[in-house]
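Record 1 of the preview.
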Amino acid sequence: MIKVYGIKNCDSVKKALKYFEKHNLDYELFDFKQEKVPCDTIASWLEKTDLKTLFNARSTTYRTLNLKEINPDDTQKQEWLCKENMLIKRPVVEFGEELLVGFNEDNYNGVFL
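->
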């Protein structure tokens, strides 16, 4: 089963869900506006990808929290991801041992088709 983490109104998440529907792939959406992503899940993602890929420094939340001025180190960034899930780059897709961050149709084709 494909597990998609994100929020329903995010354009990248919408593209990913549309992709899965177009290719008749079953998925489950974990909407982190409804429920927080556990810190151990975030830690497991960071074993498969780097912090730069997962941490969304271009988000509205990043600007609102003035994180550019705070300039958090990597440990602090991981703590922020746990406290504020809206800093997670979307979507995060788990499929078996695969972890995809963001929507890229070529990457999706390589994994799912």
